Amino acid sequence: MAARAGSLGAPPGLRLRRVYLRHEAAILGVLGLAGFTALWELAGRLGWINPVVLSSPSRVGDALLRQARSGELPRDLQVTAVEFVVGFGIAVALGVAIGVLMGLYQDVEFSLDPFIWFLYAAPLVAFYPLIIVWLGFGFWTVVAITVFLTAIPIAVNTLAGIRSVDPLLVRAVRSFGGSTADVVTKVLLPASLPLVLAGLRIGIGRALIGVILGEMFSANAGLGFRMTYYGARLRTTDVLVPMLVIVVFGVVATQLVRLLETRLARWRET
């Protein structure tokens, strides 16, 4: 109580400094973003930039409201979100499973290793024409591109996490009669969790790239399709609206992974 009373009785300048130091990163980030937005708007209004080519925050805001009221933006966001969730979910399940199997069984690792590193190093966008031939245009093509781009980094990170686990822990579980499922759930996944989650964070960005790329060339709905549609008509302001929504979507998805990391950290400690 005395410490709290002392902080309340501190001079206003000192209290403000403490608040600033506690939230310095967030405050500077907001100020930087606000300053960039203000400078962009000022440059458009003073004629330093061509607002038709580079638009301005006020124009983008008006276009955002217009697209939201027409229902166009919510529909596109829903399509993109569903494709992202399905593609990213399949990629996570596939990548973690492959990484765990390669870490558990050396024969599996030797068999899959050439394919994993080939797909990791190859420009997977080059497979896009083949995916079109196999699946045609539409939802599953977007999902397939997303899985192709996302699963391999998750598998590689998971394998690195499994390799970092002390083999003595695995032997201890085995010596007490633990099954393979016990080894995976009680030793391998908890111990390799930081690297697995790092793979998920990398995967979010790659999954968004896959979804937007697929929508740009093989869909008739979604934020990527809308960017292509307006870009072909040289409507820069309308292009920036789905672009802005994609950025916000990616930030929200990344924060959700961080929240998941916090929850799983508690499971790891138990």
Task: Summarize this structure as a short list of keywords or feature phrases.
disordered N terminus, 2 domains, 270 residues, single chain, mainly alpha, 13 helices, MetI-like fold
Explain how this protein is built.
This protein has 270 residues and is mostly helical. It has two domains: 2-49, no CATH class; 60-269, MetI-like fold (Orthogonal Bundle), CATH 1.10.3720.10. It has 13 helices and no strands. The chain has helices at residues 2-8, 12-22, 24-45, 51-54, 57-70, 72-104, 106-121, 128-135, 139-163, 167-175, 180-218, 223-232, 236-269.
The structural domain count equals 2
From the spread of the alpha carbons, the general shape counts as flat
CATH architecture of the largest domain: Orthogonal Bundle
CATH C-level category of the largest domain: Mainly Alpha
Brief sketch in words of this structure:
The protein is mainly alpha-helical and 270 residues long. The protein has helices at 2-8, 12-22, 24-45, 51-54, 57-70, 72-104, 106-121, 128-135, 139-163, 167-175, 180-218, 223-232, 236-269.
What is this structure's SSE topology?
Layout: H1 2-8, H2 12-22, H3 24-45, H4 51-54, H5 57-70, H6 72-104, H7 106-121, H8 128-135, H9 139-163, H10 167-175, H11 180-218, H12 223-232, H13 236-269
Helix pairs in contact: 5-13, 6-7, 6-9, 6-11, 6-12, 7-9, 8-9, 9-11, 10-11, 11-12, 11-13, 12-13
